[in-house]
Amino acid sequence: MLKKTVLSVIAVFVAWSVLDFLIHGVILKSAYEATANLWRPMNEMKMNVMHVAVFIASFSFAWIYGRMISNKSIATGLRYGLWWGLGAGVSMGYGTYSVMPIPYLMALVWFLGSLMEGAVAGLIVGGIVKE
User: Fold this and answer.
1) Which residues 6+ apart lie within 8 Å of 108 measured at CB?
2) What one-character-per-residue DSSP string does 88-105 give?
3) How far apart are CA 2 and CA 74, in angstroms?
4) What pTM was computed for the model?
5) Which residues contact 54 (CB under 8 A, 6 or more apart)?
6) What does each C-alpha distance from 15 to 33, 67, 118 come to in angstroms?
7) Model confidence pLDDT, tens digit, residues 79-119
8) How many angstroms separate the CA atoms of 113 and 19, rounded?
9) What are the structural domain ranges in the chain?
10) What is the CB-side half-sphere exposure of residue 131 using CA atoms within 13 A?
11) What is the rounded CA–CA span in Å between residue 13 and residue 53?
12) How far apart are the first and last CA of the chain?
């Protein structure tokens, strides 16, 4: 079980890193440029901190599934991922929208992106960590 959990942590980390690049670096690129006054300049970004944060979230996601979900399957992983994504997406997208002057489209894409990332991660752990 430990080997499968470690493999799923790595797979989720890679998937989330790729999806984050697509969501934030491609889809929302113009929205970030239009709100540049809200963000650190690129040369001041703490990308190593971001990678550690994504790794810790990946570890948490996979560990909770592996240790606390009893009926392990792809379907269960998907449901778990959608619930995870819903919680993360609402807090990231709409929680931030409620306190920062970001465009609504950015909040919506953050929400939908988090939901999608949760679903993908759920499919990954559900496919790797099975009974």
Assistant:
1) 93
2) HHIIIIIIHHHHS---HH
3) 18
4) 0.92
5) 13, 16, 17, 20
6) 25, 21, 10
7) 999 999 999 999 999 999 999 999 999 999 999 999 999 99
8) 8
9) 2-128
10) 8
11) 10
12) 9
